[in-house]
Amino acid sequence: MNGPNLCCLIRIGLAFIFLGLLMSFNVWAPFLALVVFLIACFTDFLDGYWARKANIKTKLGAMLDPLADKILMTVAFVSFVDLGYLEAWPVIFILTREFAVTGLRGMAIEKNILISASFWGKAKSCLQMFFVVMVTVFHCQLLYKKEWIPVEKFLLIIDLFLFVVLLATFLSGWRYFSDYFFSLRKN
Fold first, then answer.
1. Which residues, 6 or more positions from 21, have their beta carbon under 8 angstroms from its beta carbon?
2. Do the Cβ atoms of 76 and 91 come closer than 8 Å?
3. Do residues 141 and 149 make contact, with C-beta atoms less than 8 angstroms apart?
4. Amino acid 161: pLDDT
5. What is the pTM of this model?
6. What is the CATH number for 95?
7. Are 11 and 68 in contact (CB under 8 A)?
């Protein structure tokens, strides 16, 4: 097991630790959930950096990295629906895009088409991670009964940022599909 793949496995484990802490009503749990999520985000950066720096490319790594990302984001977004912070429809949209792009990548591999990560794909991931941090901070604020930012303003910020996340999610999905179909035309 190489280092980047180990980072991916750690991220998968951290996703479920994040879930347990987020759903706990222990006074320190929401703060610890935030810390765990930030560590999981760091492992996402670390595995990519490490793989590029050491020139480590494996089939397992190519499968594990996006899988770990999807598990982490799925756990976070579904948890927020369960906690009542998000409606289900944006989460369904985000998860549908993830499954569709995963299926598309599988079809592309079968046809020897390389669809590289785009700016929009990376932007989508960063925006989703930042969104999860924002909502987790909001969760901490509610549970600690502290009003760092007034609740109405926080909810407005979350709604506006969710729109940005959905836009990046759509644009990155569009880019993957357009690249795939453009590559099919060339062949």
1. 29, 30, 32, 33, 36
2. no
3. yes
4. 95
5. 0.90
6. 1.20.120.1760
7. yes
